[in-house]
């Protein structure tokens, strides 16, 4: 199992043994039923990319390319327009249309409004050891301007350490088994973002730390949680170590990255794929 797989097994057990049920949940399933969860607070996971600890789960296949494409829609070609997201290969935001073909003044729209990513890159280059490298998608003006889902993964903090660039990512809430959990889409895509920013600024990707303030398993995901535990037990002796490779020279422009620059090697997730009903 990967380091992420081991984290995920521990985190599932933690929720099942110590989690608490929510009251009057906001999300609904497609059929209108309230999407109840069992949650825990304050989950942290840490990976050293320089030591080959890439965060990807093998207990089910992860759509890693789509996850990276979503990062492009937030930071590289920042947009909140659903048709533009679809053009970039990201369709899973469609249920969050606020009625005008967008997800509201959120995510990419916020990055674009405040030029967050270019400001970060220039700060790393000009003042590498400064301690103010914070990129926040939680902008109160934006949140009050339109309807829309409040950003989940909303804050990154960046630190240079010798030849390495480290990054921590803060997430206010996370659906563990579909996105926020160990080795899930959120960790994959933000580790990829760390790799891209490191390339652009001339560093090696270092430590990636992920903190989730509230992480949940939905009631209709419990059977899949048990299946993932069974799979983990069956593959306990598997020493799989997948790696994401970024084929680009240091000092390139952030705008130049494409999905074809990324290659995932030694990734052999378990089958069949598991399906999850989303709470919207």
Textual characterization of the structure:
The chain is of the alpha+beta class. The protein contains 9 helices and 9 strands. β4 and β5 form a beta hairpin. α1 packs across α9 (222-234) and α2 packs across α8 (185-201).
Q: Helices, strands, pairings?
A:
Blueprint lengths: L2 H16 L1 E2 L15 E12 L15 H13 L5 H6 L20 H7 L1 H11 L7 E3 L3 H6 L7 E9 L2 E8 L2 E2 H5 L4 H17 L2 E15 L3 H13 L8 E4 L15 E4 L15
Parallel strand pairs: 5-7, 6-7
Antiparallel strand pairs: 1-2, 2-7, 3-4, 4-5, 8-9
CATH class designation:
Alpha Beta
Q: Give a quick account of the main beta sheet: strands, pairing sense, barrel closure.
A: 7 strands, mixed
Bin the helical content: 25-40%
Distance N to C terminus: 31 Å
- Low-pLDDT parts are none
CATH third-tier fold name: Thymidylate Synthase, Chain A
How many beta strands in the DSSP annotation? 9
Query: How many domains make up the 3D coordinates?
Result: 1
Helix segment tally: 9
Q: Supply the CATH superfamily name.
A: Thymidylate synthase/dCMP hydroxymethylase domain
Structural class: alpha+beta
Radius of gyration equals 18 Å
Tertiary shape: globular
CATH architecture label name:
2-Layer Sandwich
Chain-averaged pLDDT = 97
What percentage of the residues does DSSP assign to strands (E)?
15-25%
- N to C succession of SSEs: HEEHHHHEHEEEHHEHEE
């Amino acid at each position: 199992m990967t380091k992420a797989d081991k984290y995920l097994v521990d985190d599932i057990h933690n929720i099942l043994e110590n989690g608490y049920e929510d009251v009057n949940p906001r999300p609904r399933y497609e059929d209108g039923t309230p999407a109840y969860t069992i949650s825990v607070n304050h989950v942290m996971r840490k990976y050293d990319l320089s030591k080959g600890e890439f965060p990807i789960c093998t207990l089910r296949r992860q759509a890693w390319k789509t996850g990276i494409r979503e990062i492009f829609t937030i930071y590289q070609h920042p947009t909140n327009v659903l048709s533009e997201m679809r053009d970039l290969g990201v369709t899973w935001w469609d249920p969050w249309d606020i009625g005008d073909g967008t997800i509201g003044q959120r995510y990419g729209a916020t990055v674009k409004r405040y030029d967050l990513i270019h400001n970060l890159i220039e700060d790393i280059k000009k003042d590498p050891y400064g301690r103010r490298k914070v990129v926040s998608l939680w902008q109160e003006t934006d949140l009050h301007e339109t309807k829309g889902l409040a950003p989940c993964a909303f804050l990154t903090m960046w630190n240079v350490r010798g030849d390495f660039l480290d990054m921590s990512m803060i997430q206010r809430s996370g659906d563990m088994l579909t996105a926020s959990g160990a080795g899930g889409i959120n960790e994959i895509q933000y580790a990829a973002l760390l790799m891209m920013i490191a390339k652009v600024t001339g560093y090696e990707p270092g430590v990636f730390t992920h903190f989730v303030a509230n992480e949940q398993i939905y009631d209709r995901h419990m059977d899949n949680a048990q299946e993932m535990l069974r799979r983990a037990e069956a593959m306990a002796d598997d020493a799989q170590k997948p790696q994401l490779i970024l084929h680009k020279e240091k000092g390139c422009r952030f705008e130049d990255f494409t999905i074809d620059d990324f290659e995932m090697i030694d990734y052999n997730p378990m089958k069949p794929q598991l399906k999850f009903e989303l709470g919207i």
